[in-house]
Amino acid sequence: PLEMSAKKPVPFLRQVVSVRKKVLRDPRFDDLSGEYKPEIFMKTYSFLDSIKEQEKEMVQKQLKKCRNMEQKEKLQQLLNRMTQQEQAQKKQQKLRERELSLKRQQRELAKQGKKPFFLKKSEKRKLELAEKYAELKRSGKLESFLNKKRKRNAIKDKRRLPSQKNL
């Protein structure tokens, strides 16, 4: 900046050199980065699945060798998190495939000249639940699942009932 005398009054309209402000952008929300399409994302980064699998095996080996209880607990938590992420990813993939199959069916019906019919959220949920029950029945875990559900509901009902102390 230009040095000015302190004895002279500062002019009302002084010339200021403008500095161009950096425009910060977040690629997650910016249109320049393109549109997010989960199918393309999964195809592009499918190599990560094999790396994750190797890491999981490595953690399992470390868990077997480990003697320190604190370290063992941390490794167990890490392993649990990895398996949960894997299961969530599989669930997401199944959901995506189901939606794609529904879209294909709608396209086929539209080609035949029929009016498209879109399922409500509640209908989708019912179909999902029916599929879950069928899967549990196939694996033979339906009874244990229903027992757990009954127990959970019984506990909820018990909580809702007025306690004996208030009577």
How are the SSEs placed, and which strands pair?
Blueprint: H1 38-44, H2 47-65, H3 69-111, H4 121-139, H5 142-160
Helix pairs in contact: 2-3
Helix proportion range: 55-70%
Largest sheet: none
Shape: extended
What would you call the structural class? mainly alpha
**What distance separates the N and C termini?**
82 Å
Q: Supply Rg.
A: 30 Å
Strand content bin: under 5%
> How many separate structural domains?
2
What is the residue-averaged pLDDT? 89
Count of DSSP helices? 5
Low-confidence stretches: none
The count of strands amounts to: 0
Compressed to H and E, one letter per element, the order equals HHHHH
Can you give a write-up of this model?
It contains five helices and no strands. The protein has 167 residues and is mostly helical. The chain has two domains: 29-117; 119-153, no CATH class. The radius of gyration is 30 Å and the shape is extended. The termini are far apart.
Task: Spell out the key features of this protein.
64% helix, single chain, 167 residues, 2 domains, mainly alpha
